[in-house]
Amino acid sequence: MPLLPGASGARPGDGAALPVRKRGAVSTAAARGPAPAVTEPPGVSGPGARAATAPVTGATTAHAPATPAPLAPRARLWPALGAVYRAQLSRARVARIPLLFVATFQSLGIMVLMRGVVDGGAEARAVVAGSSVLVVAFVALNLLAQYFGQLRASGGLDHYATLPVPAAAVVLGAAGAYASFTVPGVVITAVAGSVLFSLPMGGLWVLVAVIPLAGAALAGLGAALGLLAPRAELATLCGQLGMSAALLLGVLPGGRLPEPVQWVRDLLPSTYGVEALARTFEHSPDWGHVLFDLGVCAAVGVVSLAAATWAYRRAAVR
Amino acid sequence: MDRPTGAVVRTSDLVKTYPAGRTRRGTPGTPPVRASDGVSVTVHRGEIFGLLGPNGAGKSTLVRQLTGLLRPDSGSVHVLGHDLVRHPDRAARLLAYLGQESSALDELTVSLAVETTARLRGLELREARRERDTVIEELELGEIAGRPLKKLSGGQRRLACVATALVGERPLLVLDEPTTGMDPVARRAVWAAVDRRRAERGASVVLVTHNVIEAETVLDRVAVMDRGRVIACDTPGGLKALVGDDVRLDLVWRERAPLEVAEVAALAADAAMSGRRWTLRLTPQAARDAVTAVTGGPAFAALDDFTLATPSLEDVYLALGGRTEGLVKA
């Protein structure tokens, strides 16, 4: 530090008192070789030189400009949503194992286990549909709740909060990406389940609607839980509980459950995704009911994503 | 150095108290912390303004209030003429902020992190990609542009985060310890890039640091903070003038101080001792005499190293009554 031009420049009369060398090292800064040159950026003169001309005190004498400076434009919703979605999708390359495979293995395992117990009919349809939607619950509800919970706890939300991006773009972009992560797992599970339980595959095209709608409902719920939970561990816990509920209440056929549990089942948004998919395994599906179930998913999706957007705004400014 | 006047940032009497921690069974709760205690600072246009102080001094709390992330309990924050207490959402359209956390970007590649941030700062795709390429070249990130942030070393990751803060033009940059963990080459690239924005576009910079060397070399003015208060605010030179003409003499002995030498024994009375290291604050004449004494005769044989230096910001900080444990001198 004594070698810096600023330090000497500030004290012109003290030449004799300035650094004296012994064994080549004058100060810790000098001992590190290139450091003094580096800490002096090009174009920035030493502080001592500046002292003569810059204001001497930090008193608030200067006033803010009379006219406020123009604001930079906001990021528009759709381009920003696209950018968040793309960035989130790319995370799958880094975290691909939990995102894409764990959920699928879990569902395949459940179906293999249930194969020994269930022998076709309504139960088989419920098992396959429940296991398929479980992939959505695992990724969109559980992992997204964890993601937002950790982001909030670590202060990572500050990054988005200090960019002029609509809250909905961040929430929808992340929710959309997590719903997209479920696509391969849901398809693999549904096809494998149909083969395992000898179910017709003609109605599987309905997954085109089930995945985004159940995905929206569960991802919205997951995002809201993650953003509202006061601690990251609680967000993780809520996500796990939600997924466990989707597992137990989705895979087991509704008719067999006690009445209070059936009410809980009716409250869970994943149930409607399960029912819609289960109906399409029937030989002549009741498309009116399928449409109703998907409508419930869509409505819950709208509400939960709106709640998640609200929760994001609340979490972003503390 | 002549530059247009006008306040870019003006805070007055900012107060922010973090509530007391809740008590759990067996452990006492933490008391409330007044992280900003009547902070008034003004940053002028084109200025690199520093906040210096150890951890917990209230620097980050202050910048979080400047960036609309934290609402003060009382007081005002004006940035470029906008009232950010009333309109915290405007901060994102006036300034770029580099926080201490990178968890939002950790799993993205450097290139995508910069591009996405540019897009979210409102740039069109083509423009965002052009700025991304420019900043990556400017900070010499080309070789690691395709790697995810979390696979990088701490300094490289920090540099990538700086790139996200620099992309997309803003008249004010708020940087919270931007060079933490960086090697000298990266630091130089950062300061060159920051200075370019100031010289070419008139950008102003608010910089949080606890590195006194950095503070002395890059800052136009420094607010020294301690326990939520600004205890001094001036140019580094002006601050150093506060501690007068005294110079600092550091002596490091090989094994132990040769107290049998009369001159050394006399110095011992005024020295702050830390193991083999003595620190003395002396007038220039007394320092010259002391150097003469310890560099000759038997004292020299016992001496391992010594440094004679004009006052640093650390001395200022100490003289103003601050705690120095948290300050970095490298």
From TrEMBL, chain B:
SMART domains: AAA (SM00382)
Residue ranges of domain ABC transporter in the record: 9-252
Keyword ATP-binding: yes
Compartments in which it is found: Cell membrane
Gene3D superfamilies per the UniProt record, alphabetical: P-loop containing nucleotide triphosphate hydrolases
Bilayer topology annotation: Peripheral membrane protein
Highest rank taxon of the organism: Bacteria
Keyword Transport belongs to the record: yes
GO MF annotations, alphabetized: ATP binding
Key words of the record: Antibiotic resistance, ATP-binding, Nucleotide-binding, Transport
This protein's name: ABC transporter ATP-binding protein
Source organism: Streptomyces gossypii
